[in-house]
Amino acid sequence: MSRAGKAAGQAEPLPHQVFWRLHWLSSPAFSARNAWSVMWGGWDDRAETVERGYSCMDTACGLQYYFDEHWPPFRGPAVETARLVVFGGGTVGEGNDGEPLVVPDRVLAWLSPAHLPRLCRVETDEGDKAALRLAMSLPQVPPPAARAPAGGWARPPATGSRVRPARGSRAR
Q: Smaller CB count within 10 Å for the chain: N or C?
């Protein structure tokens, strides 16, 4: 967008590709700098494999189905341990479950994960653009507060962890 367009208050265009992720409250702040994924269990110094990019899905239904299949107890109080983030970014590889690994370049919405089933229904009935419009119209929630250790999170975790190039990446 041109500077004149920004100055006139025009909305920035939506990214070509949109991604959906549940970002845990205990994770480092959501950012391109912190875009690393570890195997289930979260971000801690015991992680053995670290991959560049956030693990996410390219549809709301894909995310819903993933959690229905891999973690059915994600209901009730467990929903409040994460935030649903809808974002644009660039794919850098493929995660262990075949999901995209993405480095974000902008956040479109922060939502309660409780909205995910409704977003999936709208996506199924009306298409992915309708689900995105709904996501951007729903009440926003604050992003998770950063809980970084004193040394910061912008590093692969744990000394001695294996940083594995993402499948499908062109790492040398």
A: C
Q: What is the pLDDT along the chain (172 residues), one digit of tens a residue?
A: 334 444 445 455 555 689 999 998 888 899 999 998 876 544 445 556 788 999 999 999 999 998 888 766 666 666 678 899 999 999 999 988 889 999 999 999 999 998 999 999 999 999 999 999 999 999 999 888 755 444 444 444 443 344 444 454 444 3
Are 100 and 94 in contact by the 8 Å Cβ rule? The answer is yes
Please, which residues have CB within 8 angstroms of residue 24's CB and are 6 or more apart in sequence? Answer: 42, 43, 81, 82, 144
Give ∠ CA 133-136-141 in degrees, rounded to 5: 155
Q: Which residue has the tokens 């009730």?
A: 76
